[in-house]
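Readers of this paper often ask what the protein records in our data store actually look like. Such a record has a labelled line for the sequence and another for the backbone structure tokens. Nothing more is needed to write down the fold, since each code stands for a local backbone conformation. The record that follows is passed on verbatim for readers who wish to inspect the format.
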Amino acid sequence: MPDLNVSTLQCTVTDELALQVSRLFTDPGGPAVLMIHGLAEDSGIFCPRNGAGLAVFLAEAGFDVFVADLRGHGASPPRLAPGVSITQHDIVCQDMPALFELIEAHHPGEHFFAVGHAWGSVLLAAALTRQPAWLDRVAGLIHFAARRVSRRGGWRHRLMVETLWAKVMPALGKRQGLIPARSLGIGSNDVSLALHAGQLAWSRGAEWRDLEDGFDYALRLEELSWPAGLYLAGKHDKYLGQFDDVKAFAREFGPHDMQLILLQKGTGCSRNYGHNDLLTHPQASLDHFPLVLAWMQQRIHGAKTNESAA
């Protein structure tokens, strides 16, 4: 197997802001994959320290993988502190288009894959909806534990989502100037108050509209043909990415080539996966990463067949 190459890129967003992006490949000419982390995480969700993450797995399989830290997350500035405001509008309208352009710079005119975890998938989908010219370039979208609206009840949901995340976190945030997800052990990254407020607004089932300019994502989606999507949820994910919510998220994009998979013991998995460990557990590289790889390879073959026919 060729050596794994790992480098750090700077993705220019504005004159004052550049995002840090890790690039991993054994073949720089392989199909590109862009990975987007969730709200209270960073790029480490795809590159865990145990070395068993999805980024390494796909890079060793021949893909050219780009793992981003969104602004205020991981190694990307600004350093999150009280008073620093980061919004969904910033990420959707500035960060994501800059990352698409980064892929274009390294793979001009080629199809690419995009992978999202949790709320990262929502931000990714929003960006593609606002800039639909990129949709023709997307070979496929892979979503891990992704949902927009949280509909499921039960005591876990009431405690963790409706109480802790929606009520306790904003109260703590007002006192500290940010959502202290890291110190409370509910994420690897703290969250901007504005970003948290935006996530709450979109997840409560109201209209999917931009809070700053009123852009109607649901209305625009009715006009678009959505790329193929693979949606994975863990059986043990009881409130953040529960299977019914993941299924509802997939249906928001209208009729498209979609496959939903529940990762549970006894159906090809060695365990019931949760919200994060479906990406970070060492066993994932044996349980379902090969399935993801096969799905991607099938899309590559389909894209090449269509290009030959054209």
